[in-house]
Task: inverse folding
């Protein structure tokens, strides 16, 4: 593929609002996970809750989009002058030439969960203030962001569980190569809700401790939330050496099971190989892997099989979910931004909370931050339904 | 103006008064009168019994239209990248989860939870068809058919690959139904290819964005269906394909723009 320029990016998660705060947390090896006090949830688990989401207001004209997911999106759009950069670009290219492709799995389902508690006792009707389109529908966050950014190009939500906001890079890449648009806002937004907290609990996939990806004693995920955005443009002829490019992307399906990965990571392998091949790179060209690394026994072991088969056992790798929690539909976007920060700052972030790397997983898992210049990194995102996506990002150098 | 093009190799369709594409094509071509009745969803026989029991209406709908399109096109299901676009996913499953979470006992069924993901139909399809290529799973509210079509056409045009596009919607039970009144299940699947097959007559479509209004269906009952179910926004295009009628048709997409499609002569 033709490399695309990530001309602006930002992330908001439990480890910080915007790039500076996120980088400081990564440098200090700080986890944002804390015992769950979210809403009325009574589960023995840790979550990566973003502080201040409910204090965030939306533009008055977009009041019908008010839900936790869109408040988090709005909070994210305001960081790192992202919205200003979009405005500048839209002025230059035309509002119809900028697409919006955002990943989410939760959308604003929390609003529906709350509305069901307040059904009319006689009729069963939902409260009148419930807005299906603005809050519940999966499209809500892309609809909201496109209107908030006053863009008029093609738009969609990608919702393939935990691969959603990695796969948006693929949709944007195809739209740009086809010439329908000249630039795209991509990213992912997922927010805490009862469906995911109680749902993952029902599958016995939630850890009672802060998640410990790749640890011998790992016992499940910690659910997080986040909003990450990137502006993708065609790469100009000359770029700052520290500029970040999307070099490759691989997408595949496991065709195996709805909620368990293929045990040998066959789908993950295919996605990683395709990401390398679209980037025109060899396995030895990858300097660091940001693993999907959720912290469940089966996910990490399947991913380790795939990584070992494709990239060998020596490439430094880690999962940043020990810091951020698993942001589900926002994970791919959040971790792509973490990879971009890693590239620009020469920082391979440690996998937090993990004490002893599982000896059965023969990967070079980093337990401490490493300062090292990198040229190219890979980010993995795999989800329910066997949906896999790997991205390759690189510095322009 | 950028144009995306593809050959339509096979169609699958299920909806109110439509049991398959052959029947629907006869109605859309004006040969058979349209008599609406509740959508009949065939069981997902391609899934193992344990998985079959776990599927709801949306998955059964998606699998039925996908297998029909694949079979009519005579292509190998396992080799096709897919695009699944739906406005709402499984409304009944979502309702049950919300009822449980609003009750005194919030214990969810694991199956309900994994069926709640928007890509459930894509996941079951990949298992049923043993399809390991990429699957793009989209939602764009009322624009979901248009969004799916554009995603499919960019894959065909840019990656020069044959794809399976499925757009499908099924309704919610009350009380969500009152806030999103989708009256019944409707789904359409298409095999779209970058080149024409040598052994069958197919139409080429060329799509671009436009400002013109979407075309209505001449039949008032079909027009009501088109506006009531997002996936049925495809009907004006399907009518043209059913009538084997070359020319331009405009289908609904976003509030800011629509999709104009030039349908070529069959060859």
Result:
């Amino acid at each position: 593929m033709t490399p695309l320029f990530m001309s602006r990016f930002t992330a908001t998660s439990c480890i910080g609002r915007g790039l500076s705060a996120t980088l400081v947390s990564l440098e200090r090896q700080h986890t944002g996970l804390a015992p769950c006090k979210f809403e009325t949830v009574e589960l023995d688990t840790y979550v990566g809750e973003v502080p201040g989401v409910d204090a965030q207001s939306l533009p008055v004209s977009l009041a019908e989009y008010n839900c936790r997911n869109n408040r988090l999106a709005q909070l994210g759009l305001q960081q790192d002058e992202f919205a200003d950069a979009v405005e500048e670009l839209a002025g230059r290219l035309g509002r119809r030439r900028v697409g919006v492709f955002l990943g989410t799995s939760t959308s604003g389902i929390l609003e529906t969960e709350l509305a069901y508690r307040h059904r009319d006792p006689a009729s069963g009707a939902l409260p009148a203030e419930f807005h299906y389109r603005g809050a519940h529908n999966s499209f809500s966050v892309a609809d909201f962001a496109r209107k908030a950014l006053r863009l008029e190009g093609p738009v969609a939500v990608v919702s393939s569980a935990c691969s959603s906001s990695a796969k948006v890079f693929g949709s944007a890449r195809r739209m740009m190569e086809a010439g329908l648009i000249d630039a795209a806002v991509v990213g992912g937004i997922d927010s805490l809700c009862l469906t995911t907290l109680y749902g993952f609990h029902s599958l016995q996939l939630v850890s009672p401790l802060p998640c410990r990806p790749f640890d011998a004693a790992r016992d499940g995920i910690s659910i997080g939330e986040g909003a990450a955005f990137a502006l993708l443009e065609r790469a100009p002829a000359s770029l700052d050496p520290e500029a970040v490019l999307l070099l490759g992307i691989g997408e595949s399906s496991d065709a195996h099971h709805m909620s368990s990965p293929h045990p040998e990571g066959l789908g993950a392998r295919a996605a990683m190989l395709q990401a390398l091949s679209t980037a025109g790179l060899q396995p030895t060209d990858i300097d660091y892997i940001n693993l999907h690394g959720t912290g469940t026994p089966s996910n990490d072991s399947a991913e380790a099989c795939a990584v070992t088969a494709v990239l060998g056992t020596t490439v430094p790798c880690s999962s940043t979910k020990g810091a951020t929690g698993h942001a589900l539909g926002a994970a791919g976007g959040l971790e792509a931004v973490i990879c971009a920060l890693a590239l620009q700052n020469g920082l391979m972030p440690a996998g937090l909370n993990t004490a002893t790397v599982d000896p059965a997983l023969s990967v070079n898992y980093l337990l401490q931050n490493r300062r090292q210049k990198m040229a190219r990194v890979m980010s993995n995102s795999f989800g329910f339904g066997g949906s896999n996506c790997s991205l390759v990002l690189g510095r322009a150098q | 103006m950028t144009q995306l093009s593809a050959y339509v190799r096979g169609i699958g369709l299920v909806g109110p008064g439509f049991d398959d594409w052959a029947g629907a094509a006869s109605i859309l071509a004006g040969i058979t009168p349209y008599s609406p009745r509740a959508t009949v969803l065939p069981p997902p026989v391609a899934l193992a019994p344990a998985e079959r029991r776990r599927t709801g209406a949306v998955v059964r709908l998606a699998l039925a239209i996908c297998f029909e399109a694949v079979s009519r096109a005579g292509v190998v299901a396992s080799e096709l990248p897919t695009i699944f676009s739906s406005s709402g996913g499984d409304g009944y499953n979502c309702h049950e989860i919300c009822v449980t979470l609003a009750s005194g006992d919030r214990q969810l069924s694991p199956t309900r939870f994994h069926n709640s993901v928007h890509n459930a139909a894509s996941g079951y399809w990949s298992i049923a068809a043993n399809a390991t290529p990429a699957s793009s799973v989209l939602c764009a509210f009322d624009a979901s058919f248009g969004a799916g079509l554009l995603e499919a056409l960019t894959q065909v045009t840019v990656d020069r690959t044959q794809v399976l596009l499925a757009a499908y919607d099924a309704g919610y039970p009350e009380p969500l139904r009152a806030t999103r009144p989708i009256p019944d299940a409707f789904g359409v699947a298409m095999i779209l290819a970058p080149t024409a097959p040598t052994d069958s007559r197919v139409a080429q479509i060329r799509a671009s964005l436009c400002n013109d209004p979407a075309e209505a269906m001449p039949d008032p009952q079909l027009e009501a269906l088109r506006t009531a179910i997002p996936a049925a926004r495809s009907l004006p295009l399907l009518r043209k394909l059913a009538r084997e009628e070359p020319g331009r048709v405009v289908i609904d997409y976003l509030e800011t723009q629509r999709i104009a499609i030039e349908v070529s002569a069959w060859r």
Remarks:
- Chain A is about 30% helix and 20% strand.
